Amino acid sequence: MAKVSFNKDLCKGCGLCVTACPKKIVHLADELNKRGYHPAEVTEQDKCIGCAFCATMCPDCVITVEK
Amino acid sequence: MVVFDKPNALTENPLHYCPGCTHGIIHRLVAEALDELGVTGRTIGVASVGCSVFTYNYFNCDMVQAAHGRAPAVATGVKRSDKNNIVFTYQGDGDLAAIGTAETVHSAARGENITVIFVNNAIYGMTGGQMAPTTLPGQKTQTSPYGRDVEAVGYPVKVCEMLSQVDGATYLERVAVNNVANVKKAKAAIKKAFQNQIEGKGFSLVEVLSTCPTNWGLAPDKAIGWLEENMLPYYPLGVYKDKYAEEK
Amino acid sequence: MAEKVLMKGNEALAEAAIMAGCKHYFGYPITPQTEVAAYMAKKMPKTEGGVFLQAESEIAAINMVIGVASTGKRVMTSSSSPGISLKSEGISYLAGCDLPALIINVQRGGPGLGGIQPSQSDYFQATKGGGHGDFHLLVLAPNSVQEMVDMVFKGFDLAEKYRMPAMILSDGTMGQMMEPVSLEKGEINEYDKSWALTGTKGERKPNIVNSLYIAPEELEKLNFERYERYKKIEEEEAMYEEYLMDDAEICIVAYGVASRVAKNAIDQARKEGIKVGMIRPITLWPFPKKALNKAADKVNKFISVELSMGQMIEDIELAIRCKKEVLLCNRTGGMITTTEDVLNKIYEANGGKN
Fold this sequence. Notes:
The complex is a heterotrimer of chains A (67), B (248) and C (354). Chain A has helices spanning 16-20, 53-57; strands at 3-6, 26-28, 40-42, 63-66. Chain A has 67 residues and is an alpha+beta fold. Chain A has a single domain, classed as Alpha-Beta Plaits, CATH 3.30.70.20. Chain A has a two-stranded antiparallel ribbon with strand order 1-4. In chain A, strands 2-3 form a two-stranded antiparallel sheet. With 248 residues, chain B is of the alpha/beta class. Chain B has one domain (23-246): 3-Layer(aba) Sandwich (Rossmann fold). Chain B contains ten helices and eight strands. In chain B, strands 3-2-4-5-7-6-8 form a seven-stranded mixed sheet, with helices on both faces. The longest helix of chain B is centred in the C-terminal third of the chain and has 19 residues, at 180-198. Chain B is globular and about 50 Å long. Chain C is built from twelve helices and 15 strands. Chain C folds into two domains: 4-201 and 222-236, Thiamin diphosphate (ThDP)-binding fold, Pyr/PP domains (Rossmann fold); 240-350, Rossmann fold (3-Layer(aba) Sandwich). The chains are: A alpha+beta (67), B alpha/beta (248), C alpha/beta (354). Chains in contact: A-B, B-C. Chain B binds chain C through residues 11, 40-44, 46-47, 53-54, 56, 59-67, 70, 73-82, 85, 102-103, 105-106, and chain C through 24, 26, 51, 53, 55-57, 59-61, 63-71, 73, 75, 89-90, 93, 97, 197-203, 206-212. Strand 3 (62-65) of chain B pairs parallel with strand 9 (208-209) of chain C, so a sheet runs across the interface.
């Protein structure tokens, strides 16, 4: 099963991963991280297909994808 | 199994770039290429002046910081010091195509065996958004507040097209990092530009169309859209020169 | 002592650089230093690992120097006055990055494009920095073809010892004239080069050669540290030659070609019974302040003989803390002071002929 994880505190909340996700499961969290951004997160982990599109578009290398 | 993680050729330092600035993607692609080619330990990078001035903090290889526009000349020295060094410059449009035009053209003309990563976002980012040599006709910036008037200040410089006329250049390709498919193509181009150097094939330059959400005054996703609507038509993607492909 | 050969100053200097282990030379044609580039073009390809490259500009040449210097190897560039102005940006970066390198200025008349005849009018530029920021260059001023050779070894050594750029401030006369010279290999010392960019080989943290410090506290600290080094250099490395100073009542200060003219005038004046001697700075930075200040307690007057509009005279006045009057004997724009000019100035300092 695929798994995507975010290094929450390095995320700048730019949302490029949100647009890139073909399954539309990445969104920006309501709460702020310690740098003051709304970090990206995935709540429906089971829907992740491990395509790594989100990570490919991430400018800050905050996403790790496992499959 | 981890299928995607930060490459080893990037340090742990958080990037200073603005949210959504695609410099970070390009950094990662360079680092991935170095890792995959197994050359990080003998690579010496040359940082330029502009937003990419701090690249020496991000690449996990020896780095030298050059004066504005002089990165290809510094890279020439580093390469000539030891041809086993893998040498790259990472330069923005103001640095490479305005103040450093001579260094760019002549390092290409010499067929200097280096890799040039040229980030074109049509603006001076670090200094707060002034008109760049690549700023599009009509584009508003701090120093072209009414839009770039080509009658008064001339036209943008198309670097790949220009350098394709230079005999010494080996490989010139323009790519973009606006979507997943293009990021993959950009990665292939950057890797090839390093592979060329490893094989001693000479001067390789990859022009990467990139965004500047802050100085364009657009949200990151809108900035990607602006790049697609405005930059892609003016700066067509593709291979502008591949000396070795032509010889096949 | 190696056998003496007859050589042009510029060529002897170039040969000395190769002997000193400099394998990289980057230059650009400009009169009156072009012989250095031409000699390097001929010799470097025949030297193992030797690289000669004619750059597209003086600016590119000095930045290529930065590239090689950052890898810890000996590297040199040469030019003449207007070309040195172009290189000034890179010279400031060399200083800011703490990189050793050797820069040759075969001076010609200025300002602007000036002329092509010998001059010493780049004194301020060389000794006061010549680029932006707080820094100094080591400045060596040969007055013979032999010293053109010796200063190359000294210049490389000091540059590496203190991790800073060194300049040989020569002029068109030194560069163009021929003299017998002994091409003897000078001292080559090994200094720590653990800072050099040689590739991490995956065995160490990356080395970074950089002059950018956004935090002012950090930049100030580095500048303070650099000036501590400069203080040590001023204490220990000032070089000068004294000529007939034991009983001198008038002290001429002159360097390079001007010192040769001055020497002839001194010899003539001595024949006439005038007690005149000379302190010849060999390093212009560090300037031999102590020797001059000491002389100021003995002599009545100083004369600055220089091929510039009174540049070195300011350093003399500072060195002697204006204790004695300093007269200026100068020509400029490519004109050279004659023995008669200097002699007349000696008479003036002496209150007439004896």
